[in-house]
Design goal:
The protein is α/β, with parallel strands linked by helices and 339 residues long. It contains twelve helices and ten strands. The N and C termini lie far apart (45 Å).
Length: 339
């Protein structure tokens, strides 16, 4: 299975700055109007209480288009690094060794796994996801039926709808979502299939907007908050931003660890986590193999693709981890200045 992780390279949505924002995003009708029933659902509880990280094992890579499988020892080492700071994982697929992540994560103490299915057309992968959800009903909170496959035309909205029906027939209570760039939710006919699911999982990357300035982290944060607000205006379904952030390099493109940490510190200070919204940290570890592997697909070499991790390729925590602090929190994380 080709587990090549893709993300938005151009923005369909025009810049939306200028909308009024609250200093802390507490949207009327969402953050303060939670029914007891909503609070009782596993998904609502998880969104309210868990801090998520989007995770690809360091031991996984691609080499000339061929997957190099992850291994259990490497995954265990990764989870040991992540667990002090995160209580939930979001995965991308169930092939090439990554099918072992749920069991190892639960053993490591993670309370929630949002389990990725890379290809919603693949019934073998769907069956494995269903089996894992049955085995770990308390910890597997939701399934993600595909990642950016509509945007990159790897499958259709009808494929997502069919996959959702297939899973719901066997596990009607399990929350389902599918992840796409935010523009697919806001500007395409495919949005109807996505909004019909239980969980909205947009990817929101200011770094790929035409106005983006790596030195202006506040502008990048404001953009993410405005996208979140617009999505809430479209749906009453809960929203978990699955990917956002800034890379920590390369320096010649204006990226560094201080700016990455400032982005996350500011974003989490200006948003509210509750049963209707959460923002996952993206991503766990740097992936040096990505730029070359993505070059053929996108027609250019993008060095920043190697540097999205909150930890580097060797497992060293970057400055952003100090800004986030432990989870559950034991103290208020420090603000990070870009000056």
């Amino acid at each position: 299975m080709m587990l090549l992780f893709t993300r938005l390279r151009e923005c369909i949505l025009q810049p939306i700055f200028g909308a009024a924002l609250l200093a802390c995003l507490t949207l009327p009708g969402y953050a303060n109007a939670e029914s007891l029933a909503e609070q009782a659902t596993p998904l609502a509880q998880a969104l309210s209480h868990e801090r998520y990280i989007s995770y690809v094992p360091r031991s996984f890579s691609m080499r000339q288009g061929t997957p190099q499988p992850a291994n259990p020892a490497g995954i265990r080492a990764d989870l040991k690094k992540l667990h002090p700071y995160f209580s939930g994982l979001i995965t991308y697929g169930l092939g090439n060794g990554q099918e072992t992540i749920p069991e190892l994560a639960i053993a490591a103490g993670f309370r929630s796994v949002i389990l990725g299915v890379w290809d919603p057309k693949d019934h073998q992968e769907l069956d494995l996801a269903i089996a894992l959800a049955r085995r770990y009903p308390q910890q597997i909170t939701a399934l993600v039926l595909g990642n950016e496959g509509l945007f990159w035309k790897r499958y259709t909205s009808a494929d997502i709808t069919a996959a959702a029906a297939y899973v719901r027939k066997q596990l009607p209570q399990l929350a389902l979502g599918s992840s796409e760039p935010f523009s697919v939710y806001l500007d395409t006919p495919d949005a109807a299939a996505l909004f019909a699911l239980d969980l909205i999982l947009p990817n929101v990357h200011p770094r790929f907007e035409p106005w983006f300035d790596p030195a202006n982290t506040d502008q990048a944060v404001t953009f993410v908050i405005e996208v979140l607000q617009r999505l809430h205006e479209r749906t009453d379904k809960p929203i978990l931003i699955k990917e956002t952030g800034l890379p920590s390099g390369p320096a010649e493109q204006g990226f560094n660890e201080v700016r990455q940490a400032a982005f996350w510190s500011t974003l989490l200070q200006r948003t509210t986590q509750n049963s209707t919204q959460n923002i996952a940290c993206f991503e766990a570890f740097d992936a040096p193999w990505k730029p070359v592997e993505l070059q053929d697909e996108f027609g250019h070499l993008e060095p920043s693709e190697a540097h999205w991790g909150l930890f580097d390729q060797h497992g060293r925590a970057k400055l952003v981890i100090n800004a986030l602090g432990n989870w559950p929190p034991t103290a208020t994380p420090p603000a990070v200045s870009i000056e």
